[in-house]
Batch of 2 targets.
Target 1
Amino acid sequence: QSVLTQSPSASGTPGQSVTISCSGSTSNIGTNFVYWYLQLPGTAPKLLIYRNHQRPSGVPDRFAGSKSGTSASLAISGLRSEDEGDYYCASWDDSVSGVVFGGGTKLIVL
Amino acid sequence: QITLKESGPTLVKPTQTLTLTCTLSGFSLTTGGVGVGWIRQPPGKALEWVALIYWNGDRRYNPALKSTPFVSEGNSANQVVLTLTNVDPLDTGTYYCAHSTVAARAGFDYWGPGTVVTVSS
């Protein structure tokens, strides 16, 4: 059972927009930054969003992160087939003095 | 260019000790603010954070693990070693090491390709 809660799956058609949510608590998302990762099949995760909404170099602006209270969201616009994969949120948790991950959301591009 | 690569045994028996090595390139754990984390993923399941070590020797561990982790610098400045004692079949999975910084504690911006470990008798 993951500390951060994500919906198991999401889907959309090419060109559409989709939002993936991540719910936590005051000890993690409520007081610390949120990070988003994309894991394509058979590969290591890749950092998509850092510090709630910042994008690393090379990540297109179709990916947008936001945070409000103890929840965070990742919005993906202009869906492409290559966006299909598993998305994970993560945050620092002060109650365990460590990193907590969400259970992951599998995005399917129909 | 920052890269990381994990290495270690592919098969370990229950109750034994698992030792994995992360070889760093393009950075060193002696650089201020740098951290290296270990994250694992059981087959078909979610990512799970295992441990973190920072340049100043600060170590953090996931308290929910059944096995006991220990993370340390290896024999050279470009290695980080993860030890899991008294392993259980639940420790089976792909183990990743990743670069982080103290300013981005849950942010792992460079990852190794991962190494697969099976715990079975």
Target 2
Amino acid sequence: QQQVKQSPQSLIVQKGGISIINCAYENTAFDYFPWYQQFPGKGPALLIAIRPDVSEKKEGRFTISFNKSAKQFSLHIMDSQPGDSATYFCAASKGGATNKLIFGTGTLLAVQP
Amino acid sequence: DGGITQSPKYLFRKEGQNVTLSCEQNLNHDAMYWYRQDPGQGLRLIYYSQIVNDFQKGDIAEGYSVSREKKESFPLTVTSAQKNPTAFYLCASKWQSSYNEQFFGPGTRLTVL
């Protein structure tokens, strides 16, 4: 119930293509879903986040799609660039400031020039 | 320049030694967190603290200890009781009133020789 399952484990995309990473959860009490981007040897950086009251959120080339009935959410990276090559983590959290973030296992994205 | 700092960036330890990892933030965040990152396992929560002089165990607290004597500081001690301490350690923080919008430091890579 506390797990967040992330797929694929790794992804290779051509420059200019669309990268899609998926996450699924079981706990319907989760109501905050962030995505983090991590470059090798660095700490994760918050990329974009969504609450379940909307089905989509877009920030630049990054879009979160949220399907509450399927308990799934995904990150879409449009016009993928070599500089987007990194590990991406999804996460989920229940409401309330004291609750923990539950992380997916990460997706290693490589954008080929 | 606001942010979260972790030191040292690299740390080598002999078996049987305790080591302390530093985490400092000047963002005036209330809550602070320690995570461990291993390849293919995402981020696992070690300890967290919501306020000064109080902290709670996370999912993998055994072999670790923390203190929170100041709002801006949350050091982590990896004790000799930790069976497999070689990992990348990440500190994070957030405002108490926010959703789980956690900001991460740059990390410390600990290697046991």
